Amino acid sequence: MESKKVIQVEEKVPLKLMIPLSLQHMFAMFGASVLVPIIFNINPSVVLLMNGIGTLLFILITKGKAPAYLGSSFAFLAPAGLVISKWGYQDALGGFIVVGLALCFIALIIYKFGVNWIDIVLPPAAMGPVVALIGLELASSAANTAGLLDAEINPKNVIVFLVTLAFAVFGNVLFRKFFAIIPILIAIVAGYITALFTNLITVDTVVEALKTDFFVVPNFQAPRFNLEAIIMILPVVLVVASEHIGHQLVTSKIVERDLIKDPGLHRSMFADGLSTALSGLVGAVPTTTYGENIGVMAMTKVYSVRVIGGAAVLSIIASVVGPIAAIIQTIPNPVIGGISFLLYGMIGASGIRVLVDEQVDYGRNRNLILSSVVFVTGLSGVALKIGQVELKGMILACIVGMVLSLLLFIFDKLKITNDLES
Questions:
Q1: Cα(304)–Cα(207) distance, rounded to whole angstroms?
Q2: Is 210 part of a structural domain of the chain?
Q3: Angle at 231 between CA 228 and CA 232, to 5 degrees
Q4: Alpha-carbon 142 to chain mean position
Q5: Alpha-carbon dihedral of residues 139, 188, 336, 394, nearest 10 degrees?
Q6: Per residue, what are the HEC states of 212-228?
Q7: Element (H, E) at 359
Q8: Could you tell me which of 77, 21, 90 has the C-alpha nearest to residue 304?
Q9: pTM of model > 0.85
């Protein structure tokens, strides 16, 4: 551990390491994953349960070769919110199931026709910026969570945020041996203690959380299939599919394995779709691979799927053991913001790494144009609406990059471009 040894995807991890490493992943996803059911006004316990089950299914279907944690998807917020206000949450569940099944269908198409098309529609000059945008477009979200964008900034928020971020940043380069692989967990603990000292949270709050009923029964709900509601939610499949491809690309770069080919994009996308469909079937929210957990892997160099599986088990336990979930929910936003601030930045840096590793030649006009258009599309704030679904940020940039790359490929085949490589 002295030089921060890489723990690879298939490696076993001793129990004494497994628990803190898994806790680290669970804390990283918890804030965002619980926020979605809160917005939908449902009990988070069923969501934590299905996040854990979905992650374990993902690991099983991808043959333990693709480390990814499945948390609550934000892509459905706008259309699902409209459906809920018009008909109710159960009608939204029907839409979630159909989107999940649509993802499974896309996975079957990929299985049939392969993934070579990805190299054509997402060459490195486009892929690098798309990967970078996964983290960069979330930067304001991290700052907002920390309370740094409020009209009146609370000094307590700033102090807790800075302590958390400082432990995460300096711990990552100064901690040694065992502590070198759990800087996120240490930063969360340090931030939490600081929040207690600054009275951002009180001891009474912690005591009340511990008094929560020990066993909590998740609030299951049955879906209703409303054709109009399904049509409103279905376009989200474009967003989720693009997001999934982006996450698999950045994870591949981090673990230095081509996850698109082995275990295969068809397996990971099928697992993602199946998890979403099953979640909708019992009353939870759709799931997606989580950028926060990708960031944890990039920082700690711990890629073991056993650790991810451990986090999934902890999520399931938290869904039925009330005090655990209650205590985690007392973690102040500035702590979550401080962690996210660094994790999202590391995802952004992974995109730059793609450009460096692939030795993208910016002497060629096409590469300069591709990167420029993708970055500006993703960061400009422009949006494209398809029904109730809004495409913007990384998703829109990914689609624009794919279309532009495909056109350049066609122009090359027609031999009408002026920078053909000999």
A1: 35
A2: yes
A3: 90
A4: 13
A5: 40
A6: CCCECCCCCCCCCCCHH
A7: none
A8: 21
A9: no
Question: How far, in Å, CA of 218 to CA of 319, rounded?
Answer: 7
Rounded CA separation 5/181 (Å): 9
Please, is 228 exposed, middle or buried when counting C-beta atoms within 10 Å of its C-beta (0-12, 13-18, 19+)? exposed
* ∠ CA 291-293-299, rounded to 5°: 105
Domain count, the chain: 1
pLDDT tens for residues 169-198?
898 788 777 777 788 888 888 999 999 999
The 10s digit of each residue's pLDDT in 102-135 is: 999 999 999 998 888 878 888 889 888 887 887 7
Find, among 136, 132, 104, 130, the residue nearest to 118 by Cα: 130
For the chain, how are helix, strand and coil distributed in percent, rounded to 5? 70, 5, 25
Residue 421 lies in a domain: no
Residue type, 253: K
Rounded to whole angstroms, the Cα distance separating 350 from 383 reads 25
* Residue with token string 């029964």: 217
Domain range for 46 is 15-357
Task: Using alpha carbons only, give the angle 313, 336, 57 rounded to the nearest 5 degrees.
Answer: 25
Alpha-carbon span 335 to 321, nearest angstrom: 23
Going from the C-alpha of 335 to that of each of 22, 121, 171, 192, 346, the distances in angstroms are: 18, 39, 15, 7, 17
In terms of Cα–Cα distance, which of 91, 39, 96 is closest to 275?
96
Q: For residue 376, is it within any domain?
A: no
Amino acid identity for residue 296 in this structure: V
| Nearest of 23, 53, 386 to residue 218 by alpha carbon | 53
- Residue 177 CA to residue 164 CA, distance in Å, equals 20
Q: Enter the tokens of residue 347.
A: 């995802």
What's the one-letter identity of residue 161?
F
CA dihedral 374, 377, 379, 382 (to 10 degrees): -170
CA distance 331 to 204: 14
